[in-house]
Amino acid sequence: MMRQRKGNRGFSLVECVVAVAVGMSILGAVYMAVWTGQRSTTGIDRKVTTGQDARATLEVMAMEMRMASYNPFYAANPWTDTASCNAGDSTRRGIQNATASTIQIQMDLNGNGACGDAANEIIVYALDTVNRRITREPWTCSGSPVSAGVQSFLGAAAGEAKTVRLVNADAGVAIPLFRYFNSTGADITSSLPGAISQIRRIEITLVVDSEETDPSLGGSQRRRMIYSTGVVPRNHG
Q1: How far apart are CA 197 and CA 122, in angstroms?
Q2: So what's the pLDDT on residue 29?
Q3: Cβ contact 126:137 at 8 Å
Q4: Average pLDDT of 65-79?
Q5: Distance CA 113, CA 124 (A)
Q6: Mean pLDDT of 225-233
Q7: Percent with pLDDT over 90 in the chain
Q8: 151 vs 7, which has greater pLDDT?
Q9: d(CA 170, CA 207)
Q10: At 136, is the pLDDT very low, low, confident or very high (cuts 50, 70, 90)?
Q11: 174-214 tens-digit pLDDT
Q12: Backbone φ, ψ for residue 70 (5° rounding)
């Protein structure tokens, strides 16, 4: 007759249930930690990508706006009226048009005493509220005004959706793309175009939504950020 050896007793049902419950709890905690980390990483990636696009846009816009009114040989009136290609308003110099949503800058890059006979001497930046983008449009004037085409500078081309969005004009935002200040620091945006000759500093503000929704915001919202910079068009002053 065989005897049952002590210590060979198996696990009871209760012990198995408890072990499974503990294991599931540990796995659940690990899963939540990984899921939260992944959401956070994706959110940071959305923010970094959007920030890179916005900062690059600001840098190029600021660089070109600093050149506004560049007139190396002090020609009497090198500025151009892009509607007719005749002489522009000499009092406005190289900022022939300026509003809260658009600016036209001019510069005599080739130094021949005229703006518009070479590429990138006349540039128009504008807020396209329909497509939520900034556009850049270079013009030339050789007898008649010619546009080099509207470029999507920040945001999607017309009809495209998967990109960062400029939402300055959206409901609940309403932040001007451009603001203008005189030599005393007073905001003269509402006094334009009459006060264009007084512009000494331009403030550019971009309110942008990320290209894709941000998981850290519930997965249904885009990450919204604001970037701004100030530009001193020294040639204009």
Answers
A1: 17
A2: 74
A3: yes
A4: 94
A5: 20
A6: 94
A7: 58
A8: 151
A9: 10
A10: very high
A11: 999 999 999 999 999 999 999 999 999 999 999 998 877 76
A12: -65, 120
The torsion defined by the Cα of 129, 131, 134 and 136, in degrees rounded to 10, comes to: -120
Alpha-carbon dihedral angle through residues 181, 187, 190, 195, given to the nearest 10 degrees = -40
| Average pLDDT, integer, range 101-108 | 96
Cis peptide before 233 (omega within 30 of 0): no
Cα gap 66→92, rounded to integer Å:
15
Cα distance between residue 1 and residue 190, in whole Å: 107
What's the 3-state SS for the chain? CCCCCCCCCCCCHHHHHHHHHHHHHHHHHHHHHHHHHHHHHHHHHHHHHHHHHHHHHHHHHHHHHHCCCCCCCCCCCCCEECCCCEECCCCCCCEEEECCCEEEEECCCCCCCCCCCCCCCEEEEEEECCCCEEEEEEEEECCCEEECCCEEEECCCCCCCCCCEECCCCCCCCCCCEEEECCCCCECHHHCCCCHHHCCEEEEEEEEEEEEECHHHCCCCEEEEEEEEEECCCCCC
**Across the chain, what does the average pLDDT equal?**
86
Q: Residue 25 contacts by C-beta under 8 Å, 6 or more apart in sequence?
A: none
Which backbone phi and psi does 25 adopt, to 5 degrees? -65, -40
HSE of 37, CA atoms in CB hemisphere, 13 A: 6
